[in-house]
Amino acid sequence: DADVTQTPRNRITKTGKRIMLECSQTKGHDRMYWYRQDPGLGLRLIYYSFDVKDINKGEISDGYSVSRQAQAKFSLSLESAIPNQTALYFCATSDTTGNSGANVLTFGAGSRLTVL
Amino acid sequence: DAKTTQPPSMDCAEGRAANLPCNHSTISGNEYVYWYRQIHSQGPQYIIHGLKNNETNEMASLIITEDRKSSTLILPHATLRDTAVYYCISSTDSWGKLQFGAGTQVVVTP
Q: Which end of chain A is more exposed for a tag (fewer CB within 10 A), N or C?
């Protein structure tokens, strides 16, 4: 099984619908992240969480919300999906243990969302 | 965080070494250099990182110039499975807020 699992892997929805993308990890990491990738571009950070009680906005958080239900679970919600939220979404985790200042991310396989 | 500059694309022959350059001329003393790669829309995969010294692991080597303004990722014996987009990132942020640019599309040919 993958260390970082994202569901669903593919989703097609309509404008105005509420969508939830889920992420679970078995690495025991404290930190979890949601990134978005548009075609031909790099990844942009949406939200990140350092632990269950900590949620932080990234560079493109408008139109998104998150929930950290447990150390292992971090969900991304689109309250009212719009077509320009069509993208590939990645969840990632990292560990604070033995942190020397560097931060190495482990990514999930991605969730492809299409909003019609 | 320092902005990085990478060539948009490069080709490499299978079995040869692939040398991927990255310019980070505004890097500060406490910024790490990270390399990730992404194979055809899969999740990015960590390759290697370094601060000042050259680093080597089972995947690649990272050569950082003495002034730290540029670095080179070396894939010693490229295979077809190394075809991917390679991202060079510099960051002081130990909390994972890495800024991914467009990267270098590497195509390994037989």
A: N
